[in-house]
Amino acid sequence: xxxxxxxxxxEVLDNGNGITVDEAVELNDRYSADxxxxxxxxxxRRWHNDEIDTCSIVNAxxxxxxxxxxxxxxxxxxxxxxxxxxxxxxxxxxxxxxxxTMHGIRRFSLVTSGRKVAPADIENFCRIYRRIEAExxxxxxxxxxxxxxxxxxxxxxxxxxxxxxxxxxxxxxxxSLCTTHTHADKLRTIALARSVGMEVCCGGIIGMGETMRQRxxxxxxxxxxGAVSIPINILNPIxxxxxxxxxxxxxxxxxxxxxxxxMIAPRCILRFAGGxxxxxxxxxxxxxxxxxxxxxxxxxxxxxxNTVEDDKRLFAESGYRESPLKA
Length: 327
Known about the structure:
Elements: H1 3-15, H2 21-30, H3 33-47, E1 51-61, H4 90-103, E2 107-112, H5 119-135, E3 139-143, H6 149-157, E4 160-164, H7 183-195, E5 199-201, E6 204-206, H8 212-224, E7 229-234, H9 251-264, E8 269-272, H10 281-288, E9 294-296, H11 308-317, E10 321-322
Parallel strand pairs: 1-2, 1-9, 1-10, 2-3, 3-4, 4-5, 6-7, 7-8, 8-9
């Protein structure tokens, strides 16, 4: 290992503060994907144990979204044929939560389309969350858009421990992908969620045409916003969206990205999320031994994920044990 990589690794192992974007860009320019992944695995082992943090989501309101995010199948600005429905039925949500419990998945989130859930609707979701909290051992999360203080407090009171609000991409690239809300709007919601006592899950999508520097800026921005979990989604270009013809980034680039995210955010859970279905088995294993230590399991809203059984075999091969459910 050369002096520059060894020095950066030593600093992260010692203090857990994470490297700068400039340092991460230099590492990317100077070292192979395997060298970066090996360093990232040392960081993961230093600041985390061998538990894999598992979660799953259910699409609790689909389609007809007012926002114009270029990657998203649920925007009413795009014609993708996605299913459209209002608030999920309570029993349907409970069935999904029970299925997660049966599979030993630790966290569970309701995810809604739209700019935000209105105060008038938040009580319906709170009722569902209270039942899930009472009837399952799941850790509860929510992803309901650009909520205000009242809605976030109500969710917290209903048992939601963690709020998910992806930055999606860096502040420097976001305006080219969405015009109906801003990066600052997202940071405002993240700060409000933390102010009511929730943890924050905050990451984004890679492969949307951003540069590696912009990708690494996203990691630093999520870290600095206070994220405890950073999901890494890989763009799955959806027909009917403006990004439908976006070239796929290589598996090597994905491995590099995950490793550098770990160097930037050593204390965060780095979470495999949407789009990983196209990756080879070897690449997914390399990433689990290259910085990643969390997984979003099952179907991913409008795309299909890996099977739970496949994921569990992969965890075991990579030396992980699953995080326990609440007693």
